[in-house]
Design goal:
homohexamer, UDP-N-acetylmuramoyl-L-alanine:D-glutamate ligase, four-stranded mixed sheet, PfkB_dom (chains A, B, C, D, E, F), kinase (chains A, B, C, D, E, F), transferase (chains A, B, C, D, E, F), Ribokinase-like (chains A, B, C, D, E, F)
């Protein structure tokens, strides 16, 4: 078992019940989640020692975040309290042909407003195997661009491997701004979740329409030879209720694809990418083969679609069983 | 933007939650709707000025109808109060192979019991572009047959276009009775929703098994050259949860079909035809091309299947966006 | 109309709402059911006079069982009260790729702990046409093996036909133990639900990989010439939400298969086999043809998948209508 | 144990959840009940053999009524099917200072529209100890006035005791009309639920402001010496959530009052009077003392206030235990 | 009937279900409300022509606000769209000894961030009888202090009466800041909701411990002889579930008190003060006597406690009926 | 802050929603709790380091227990997995005059079936300040009597203070058996929750009808001079919805009583005694005065009544605030 630190924003998600639009909704489901928090929970579920570092307001909502993390045995000693508010977003759940729709209300959050790294960096990375962070964090503010870079440097100095999920969000910053920062931080990264669009738009790799994902992984590694592992999911959206999902992994100049998962119906797809990332990092920590890793991670991502909430609700034994008999037969 | 009057009965629908039969149900969902009311709401959503004329009892149920219409900005100055009861129906929601099942309890309603036109007809059609009514209204009683004809005449006199949705219901009257009335009123109609069965059964057009819907539209126009526009949906019922939907339009001797919508799962199909009619009338009012009109209307009908309740919950911008990207991808 | 006695355990089922795992669930749905009780309810729904014999604790849970049976007009004069507890099981509902999962908590129940036949056997089988019991009952304990045999003998003596559903459960006893008992009791059986696995594993019929179910039915009858009827369903599990279902029947050296049912989505598949058995016994009691019987029974089983709870909620008229128009179209 | 027939209308009640007005309500709770049906269920709960005679439509709603009665082991052999609709009413639940509010939608029901006694009167009262009916039944129509009288005569002829609950409803008929009928039918009545207002308004007993209920009971018996027993509850409405309840009984020129029950909060007061009547008739059937009878009946009525739905959910043992320890302490 | 404009912020309220703390809550109830919006809805319920002026974001949440107002027939022509977010607050519902608890998350809202009066002031007050605004609006920002004053001046210029509810909130600004502004704006006010604390803390009236509310009303009028009417409620909090409520009114040197309302249980007390203000302004518009006005307003406030949501759900007829028979008896 | 170990059984509670009997309930609320687990959660909420030792089955229900404890930051390193089932009980929630009712289904649980102390006793009490256990544990079995004594001895040897809550349950063992064991174990106890009935029935102190609780505390200490602290609540049950609660403490020959709490309505009283015990032990650990301790503990117990579930949901700051302003006023 390994020790992992993830760091990022965690938000309150308020979502509608399937079949109702937001304007029709008298009640909203409350979930707490965020990319790095979701990865933390996945890894804690698999038995690793996981710290989630963030900042939440000193209110019942901040307390709810803490209890949410505790529930999955994530260490919250680096969960700071203070600042003005918890970032929030509204999710109108999609169904069939109608897509889900999101309204962000995250500006001014306790985490986004941070100007300096308030954690004790001297201890944060002690004995830590992997530090995981996503591209959403530097997108939050100029200071967060600087702080993200600083965190990566400190993590490397402490001997951690650095895991980074590009996760580009056009609502938060421009391609140009993101590309510039990514170029600065990717030299510190060991494991990287990125797709074709990231390669082309952010890292300036030229499009070759004949080429598949493996080609872009190869090109990205040429640019950043320090990165040992690339991974991402390929999702074919048939409708809001039915998606096809394939996991991909690139390691040691080799490209791997998982079995194909036809997911139908989808209960809740938020956090599926994080469940995939969590599965990949678990494979790394457990020194599983690349093939076993991508299969495990994709199974975890597929299972995530079958439960409400942002976070993976499955143990490593359950994911493994699902890989063997994932048929939908009753388990008695 | 145009001005529209629709007139008809609005009922309380009491429906089960999916997966429960009516006899198992301890609670029922309450919705208010009716063909003409649903068309009114669609058009109000698209920004038109819409009046819904009807009659409801002077009880909390009548008040609930009024507030339902207000919620969508439908004008209720011609919503009369009085009479004995609100028409009601019970809907046992279908799922998969099991069809939905309806119990009507509409006899004796305030609207159905009307004997004279209690609205101020001198003002009702002032500056109105379209008057919309359906074949359910004359099916309610003998007086309503006379009153429907009278309304159409008054509307025409006031310079309105008349829109009519055949909507034959065998539980309310015979084919013969309906056919006789339709023959009397169709000469006043400008826009008509009718299908193959209406043509054959009600208007006495002889079946030609080799022919498609376009043929019948053509034939119907030969009979009623005053009708500028025919429209209806073609629905293929795969199961109670999965339908295929195609919208059709006949205009100026030309037949148009929308793209095919595979609707799966269906949240609630009640009111989808009204959403289609609302979309067609919106195209007419906005002078959209026939192709744009049928695409818009079919998109509106498809979206209706994804929300609970009888009425369309989408603005014209949302329908238009769905036409472009209706893939089921998350809209962030 | 016939008179039927079924006898077995009835349990409390506590199930999650779809999309939630058991550990996430703050509330659980409560249903009461068991193989023989479910068959009893099906047959009572079809108008037969049905007695369900069992034993439940003298608590509100036992009372809830009684009222559940009463609700469907099942006679409870042979429902004993006493003993320590009601058998319970927890069902984590599956969805899509994720299978349902069951936790049994049935040991020590009032029924399982019975050591002697506490019912008045002199009257239990009076004027009874069919006595139905399943292979779960003798699996509960050594005394229940003896008592099952005794019940069958008494039933035969009273002139009843005996119906037996093999229903082998590996969690309760070994193949060997079950096979030994089945060999003893099958000579008393008239109607038998059994599949290929039962034939091979329990009755020692050697596998012939080229052969289909009809072959095994033939072989089983060679061993037990007293059995007039074999039946079972063939289920293809596409996912926890989509199954294909075919009913089979073997009678008078003839093999029958129902039409194919594609069930999607599945609301609740628990009790579908019992609904099938109920339909078969109804066909027998009503002297329907084998083809009509297997079609009716499969339709009943398919409908069962569309409602929550263990028991069939449909009258014989509703099943018959479904056979004719089971298209998923609205029934107005 | 005795045998009882009750006869009357049973309706669907659609009620709001506490704290919501009807116009705000997206879902309504469905319960089935009626005065005579509620009395039937109480007596069946206490172990008596009870028949409920009525008429319901041949729809799922009629079937729901039947299953509701079956659930409590009420015999439905005299529950006819036919006619047009099930009587319905809407209940906006009150709370605190805000009173509950009722909208009746019962006109034209299968029962109210009956013109002749469609039951087999030759068998209906066979071996029956008590026939119970209320003043709501003759209030439904002129034919029902005649039929009520006829039923009472037939019951008396068959040797039944007749129980009558005045239950005057000003929305259904005038005081004068009711008074005239009551004068005709009371000579056939053995047990009568009536209060001061009934005595004064319906039976023409002159008001004496110094006198209490006992005085009026005495006077009523002077008019109708055939009546052995008068009973009713005295309810002090503190608010919609808090009522004081006292049961009264007059027997053999003696007046009895139960202990005082302070009921707070009230879950659902509909049917409390019927629970009281059920308790009184149970005392009569079991030949309990007048004091024991009124205490039992009042306890039953008090308990009814603590559960949702029209009908008493308690066995005679539970009512008896409540009389002893009705303190609100946990029963472990 | 009069014409009224109210102007202020409207927020999304997310509240827990009674008996659950915020940290325990998986779902939250969504309501929309704000002091001035709630007053607008009350007056629209009573039949007045009411405009609510505000600003909401151009999202589904802004649309939900608009539909909420439409539902009660409030005119939204002056409801602007734009800005960044909808102000939000979280309400942990109290019960018994445990108080409700509020977390505000309103900073940065579309309304609070306004810097200039974006409405067309030339038309806003046309033919308007009363302009109503509260002390929360100037508390939002420095610009809002200036804009509040400006609005009052414009309203007076247009011939409106100005209604002002002090509503001091210590979380938003200091007593000193509020006192200074109030001194500037009260000379423009005709009807003023203020209590003893407002008099002492904001307007510098010295405390006289022997004196009651009437004394302070008198003193306030000495300072601001332009104010014709003072009003407020006196609330005695027995617990979060039980309050005593008395309405007070000061007019023409006369002090009036309503009957005492004991409110138990409380469903939702948010908006009760606004319901009171709405009742007072209705009395003014209808030229009711001061006594009738304070009784009506207090009854409206008491009724508000019995329904979920911020807004009064009662018509003037319902409030009037409640004044007569507000006993909690069933209204049939 | 201190370190505490509590040890005992934790069960699944399945409870009805208020106003529904168990037989009416289609869904049940699931909560996890037990005396010692509840005390553990209270103390963890107050910031202490708390270990809960127990044994649960290796199923999703055992996992749910673990996540429940994690949610409140209780250490589960000594929560063993194994055995056959999780103890369960059914709670029919009481309301008003109707008492709650409990059905236990706890026999054969993983914890109750333990025969030896499977925890590592060498480490369990390391650096632990208080070991807390209740009288339910030795009531489970003969082996548990021996093991309870052994645990206390080991705890004392390790330097822990021992806290014991008598909690006599007549369903589990006789007074005689309990009395004998209590006499053996009380010499090891430092803090003891016991009431008058415990003193008289279990410890053989003779009744003196003139004497109050303080007298019995004094007498008990004479018998067990090692016990430093006695405590318990005095509860007056007005109804299932309204109780009066007073906390009592005896320390250093001095008797203390808290302020009186009138609790109305009661949301959920299960676990209130444990919340009281948790408050007392917090006072001990924090060296609060006896008066402050009993006030804090009683406030915690009162607050527990206002939330669903067995466990206290309040931090020490929230309890302290409630002591100051516990009025039911909104906290903004």
């Amino acid at each position: 078992m390994g020790k992992v630190v993830t760091l990022g924003e965690i938000m309150l998600r308020l979502s509608t019940q399937s079949g109702n639009r937001l304007v029709q909704s008298d009640s909203l489901q409350a979930h707490y989640g965020g990319g790095e928090a979701n990865v933390a929970i996945s890894l804690a579920n698999y038995g690793h020692e996981v710290v989630f570092a963030s900042k939440v307001p000193n209110t019942a909502l901040g307390e709810a975040v803490r209890k949410h993390l505790w529930r999955y045995h994530v260490d919250t000693h680096y969960l700071l309290t203070g600042g003005k508010r918890l970032g929030t977003y509204y999710l109108e759940t999609g169904i069939g042909e109608r897509a889900a729709s999101v309204i962000y209300d995250r500006a001014g959050s306790s985490f986004a407003e941070m100007k300096v790294l308030e954690w004790d960096l001297a201890t944060l990375f002690d004995d830590v195997d992997i530090f995981h962070i996503s591209g959403i964090t530097p997108a939050l503010s100029k200071p967060w661009q600087t702080m993200t870079l600083e965190l990566m440097k400190q993590a490397k100095k402490a001997g951690c491997k650095v895991s980074f999920d590009c996760n580009y969000r056009s609502k938060l910053w421009s391609l140009k701004e993101a590309g510039q920062l990514f170029t600065q931080i990717l030299p510190y990264v060991d494991y990287c979740s990125a797709g074709k669009l990231d390669a082309v738009n952010l890292l300036g790799i030229s499009v070759d329409s004949d080429e598949e994902l493996a080609f872009y992984y190869e090109k990205m590694q040429e640019h950043f030879p320090n990165i040992q592992l690339f991974y991402s999911t390929k999702r074919t959206v048939r409708s809001a209720s039915a998606n096809q999902l394939i996991g991909t992994l690139w390691y040691n100049h080799q490209y791997y694809e998982s079995a194909i998962h036809e997911i139908n119906p989808i209960v809740d797809r938020v956090g599926a990418g994080d469940a995939f990332a969590g599965g990949i990092l678990h494979g790394v920590l457990e020194q599983m083969t690349p093939r076993a890793t991508v299969d495990f991670a994709t199974a975890a991502a597929a299972l995530k679609h079958t439960v409400y909430g942002d976070c993976n609700q499955f143990s490593k034994e359950e994911v493994a069983d699902f890989l063997i008999c994932g048929s939908g037969k009753i388990i008695r």
